[in-house]
Design brief:
By secondary structure, the chain is mostly beta strands. Helices cover 0% and strands 15% of the residues. Strands 1-2-3 form a 3-stranded antiparallel sheet, with no helix packed on it. The chain is extended and about 50 Å long. It starts with 14 loop residues before the first strand and ends in a 48-residue tail after the last strand.
Length: 85
C-alpha cells in the first residue's frame, strides 16, 4: 500500500497487499485464486552475506527453530481470515 521502495519489487498481477487488523502485519492476497500469504509473492531472498566471525551466539540470541510452526515451518499465525495455505 503506497510503498514505493525501489528495493521492493511490484506484486505479481492479481496480488494485493493489506494489513491484518489484529497483528498489524502486512499480508498478501489474490482474489482470483483465493490464495493468501504472509510472504510477499515473488519474493526472492538476497544472497547470503559474508560469514560472521564465528563463536557462540550472543546471550540474548533466540533460536526460532524450536518454536512450533504452521504448515511445514512457515512460522507465524495462520493466514488472515483463517484462510487455508
Amino acid at each position: 500500500k503506497g510503498n514505493h521502495d525501489p528495493m521492493i519489487p511490484p506484486l505479481p498481477p492479481g496480488w494485493k497487499e493489506d494489513t491484518d487488523d489484529v497483528t498489524g502485519i502486512a499480508f498478501f492476497y489474490n482474489d482470483e485464486t483465493g490464495e493468501r500469504t504472509w510472504v510477499r509473492p515473488g519474493f526472492i531472498p538476497p544472497p547470503p552475506g559474508p560469514v560472521g566471525r564465528g563463536g557462540p551466539p550472543p546471550p540474548n540470541f533466540q533460536n526460532n527453530n524450536t518454536q512450533n510452526h504452521h504448515r511445514g515451518g512457515l512460522g507465524g499465525p495462520p493466514p488472515p481470515g483463517g484462510g487455508r495455505w
